[in-house]
Amino acid sequence: MGARFATHFTAHRRRHARDAACRMRGDIEGRSHAMERNAPLVVSAETAGLGNRLKSWVSAMRLGADARVLWQVTPNMPARFGDLFTNPCEVAAVPPGADVYSSWRLAILPEDEAHLPSGFATVGAGAHPLVRGVGKAWWTLTGRRSDRYRFMLFPKQHSRRSTRADARHIDLEYGRIPQHLRNVYVPLFARIAVRPEIAARAAEWASANLDAAAIGVQIRTWRDDARRHRKYHLPAWKRLVRMLDAAAPNARFFVVSDSDDVLPQLEQRYGAARVLHFPRRTTRLASWGSPEGIVEDLIDMLLLARAERLLASYLSTFSEAAWWLGGTTARVAVF
Fold it and tell me: For the whole model, what pTM was predicted?
């Protein structure tokens, strides 16, 4: 995996970028048609976290004959594109005539619709949460005879601007995603060229400390949002503990998190020998505060991508991007 990754942003005026994004992402603005491929130049301009940016980037790769990245340095992304990657695709501004893709969602094209039935998505669907909640309750009561709600723990409201009315999305659906779309996106994720020294740090540590049996665990605590921490993380922690308790007594857990507090808790419960983590030089609490922190977040993602079994925080695109980087072969459970 390490060798695989080792080998291979003045922003435009906001109005222009927004209008360009509307032209490219018609369905995201509330229209029902799917996006078209083979635009001459598509610029990925997502400004959220690492996982969201990678998903936007590979979508631009798919949509454009020439895909570029407008990587804006922000308070939650202090690393520059070149601090992390070597792909010669960064731009300092949106070139004239270029289309802009600035969504966290993986792009769905018209040719995908034959492989992706209407109403497919549950995690990222736009239907009212009450409708999806009733749907999951019925699915549960009738014996879970399909995998439809397998990755939807609870229904979250999504913006209509980012959601297709026909729910043809694959975001956060993991093992439910049709093989056709895995075959499309796995090679695009493989084109992401992590800086060799970063990939080498991940590969060297993995060689000495990780084995195929280690269970990957990604814990998003929402440390930056007290409301989401209470609403999402505290119930999720209970679900995670049940999963870890059910693992084999000798199972080891490779743990990635946005908080420094979770490792001592897990070590106290399961023993330090069973809880693995990359020896970061930066604290997890401060990872968003420096380029080196983001570098080590990327190392965590590359290591998580090696897991054959992955326990992922619900709604986190960090673990989702790791799953794609790992070739979509890991067995996933969300908590």
Answer: 0.87
